[in-house]
Design brief:
Homodimer. Keywords: Aminotransferase, Pyridoxal phosphate, Transferase. This is Aspartate aminotransferase. Belongs to the class-I pyridoxal-phosphate-dependent aminotransferase family. One of its GO terms (biological process) is amino acid metabolic process. This protein has 17 helices and 13 strands. It is globular. Helix content is 49%, strand content 13%. The N and C termini lie far apart (82 Å). The chain has 2 domains: 117 residues, Aspartate Aminotransferase, domain 1 (Alpha-Beta Complex); 235 residues, Aspartate Aminotransferase, domain 2 (3-Layer(aba) Sandwich), CATH 3.40.640.10. The strands form 4 sheets. It has a 7-stranded mixed β-sheet with strand order 2-10-9-8-7-3-4. Strands 1-12 form a two-stranded parallel sheet. It has a two-stranded antiparallel ribbon with strand order 5-6. α7 links the parallel β3 and β4. It is α/β, with parallel strands linked by helices. α8 runs parallel beside α9, α9 packs across α11 and α16 packs across α17. The mean pLDDT is 93.
Length: 420
């Protein structure tokens, strides 16, 4: 009896020490550069602090906003609907309305049932679902990602084990589009490559191709047999007009491309925490679309089984009701107009304080973000000396700029850049 007790104690000791060592090799993950900015801002006791790093809309008082159309949709939903599981493909109604936004209200592609589409966990989830789909069915392929891009794009395709390459996009000297470099990279990429494109309001630069440039890009991608995948996180929020913001996609559709699109309602409806998005893939015919959708659902099943219901109900309620949709269009234009107004105000204030630099790019760029051209060292000075927080690549979230802080922000930027 004593011997057996001793063996149990020895085994317990062995297994106990082994279990203690399972996670010893795990190091803390590096902080997310954007979330880290917000953490530092919140910890700063200064009354003058300004956060222009956050990628979420704020009103002119710097406060988060819930749209009235969302409030009304939630009032209509409350107590009237159950919260049962959605199908793996998500809300059929939400997906239908979302496709109309991207492909057009009277799209022949929708009528012909050529689009495989599923509800996704906002734009991030849509991109990840597509990346896994790409890896599974085109395992030999790679993805070309613009320089720069939203940092999470690299994480998404990396974790899906899709090889990445980059293509020229932003020109630091002009603070505009490096169109020549972009064209060269697309020409030199192996035929049949995948290209990640921002449909509008490029993040982080705010630099979009012109309509004529989009037409040239479409023509070149067609000639090379590349596959264009659009991340459209800002439809309606860029210019204030969802139709205008979908222009790039419509050009590609007119040119006969098969495309993929990731859509999100985080920015344009303020549904950041609801994680409502859609992934769609335009196919050759209805039969192919059915097969592709079934595989997208199969990929979603072990990831998250099925998407959440509440945000999808909000979106489908707004877009499915003409009164609420009209209110949304008015509100999203109001948000876009405030951002555009703050761009003008920032540029005017910089010129007023006598900055010797050109700030035309502030008003030439579009969308939530302004790629200021400031260096990491200049950004560090802004933070250390003026309590102004942004990512070290110089990206200013225009949503954080208000009539109350724009003068202070311009003065600070002038101070750290005047010796450039």
């Amino acid at each position: 009896m004593a011997l057996s007790r001793k063996l149990v104690q020895q085994r317990s000791s062995v297994f106990g020490s082994r279990s203690m060592s399972w996670w010893r090799s795990v190091e803390p993950a590096p902080k997310d550069p954007i979330l880290g900015v917000t953490e530092a801002f919140l910890a700063d006791p200064s009354p003058d602090k300004v956060n222009v790093g956050v990628g979420a809309y704020r009103d002119d008082n710097g406060k988060p906003v819930v749209l009235e159309c969302v409030r009304e949709a939630e009032r209509r939903i409350a107590g009237n609907l159950n919260m049962e599981y959605l199908p793996m493909g998500g809300s059929v109604k939400m997906v239908e309305e979302t496709l109309k936004l991207a492909y057009g209200e009277n799209s022949e592609h929708i009528k012909d049932k050529r689009i495989a589409a599923v509800q996704a966990l906002s734009g991030t989830g849509a991109c990840r679902l597509f990346a896994d789909f790409q890896k599974r069915f085109r395992p030999e392929s790679q993805i070309y990602i613009p320089v720069p891009t939203w940092a999470n794009h690299h994480n998404i395709w990396r974790d899906a084990h899709v090889p990445q390459k980059t293509f020229h996009y932003y020109h630091p000297e002009t603070k505009g589009l490096d169109f020549a470099g972009l064209v060269d990279d697309m020409k030199n990429a192996p035929n049949g490559s995948f290209f990640l494109l921002h449909a509008c309001a490029h993040n982080p630069t705010g630099v979009d191709p012109s309509e004529e440039q989009w037409k040239e890009i479409s023509k070149l991608i067609k000639e090379k047999g590349h596959f264009p995948f659009f991340d459209m996180a800002y439809q309606g929020f860029a210019s204030g007009d969802p139709e205008r913001d979908a222009k790039a996609i419509r050009i590609f559709l007119e040119d006969g491309h098969l495309i993929g699109i990731a859509q999100s309602y985080a920015k344009n409806m303020g549904l950041y925490g609801q994680r409502v998005g859609c992934l769609s893939v335009l196919c050759e015919d209805e039969k192919q679309a059915v097969a592709v959708k079934s595989q997208l659902q199969m990929l979603a099943r072990p990831m998250y089984s099925n998407p959440p219901v509440h945000g999808a109900l909000v979106v489908s309620t707004i877009l499915g009701d003409q009164e609420l949709k009209t209110l949304w269009l008015k509100e999203v234009k109001g948000m876009a107009d405030r951002i555009i107004g703050m761009r003008t105000a920032l540029r005017e204030n910089l010129e007023k304080v006598g900055s010797p630099l050109s700030w035309e790019h502030v008003t030439n760029q579009i969308g939530m973000f302004c790629y200021s051209g400031m260096t990491p060292e200049q950004v560090d000075r802004l933070t250390n000396e003026f309590h102004i927080y942004m990512t070290r690549n110089g990206r200013i979230s225009m949503a954080g700029v208000t009539t109350g802080n724009v003068g202070y922000l311009a003065n600070a930027i002038h101070e750290v850049t005047k010796s450039t």
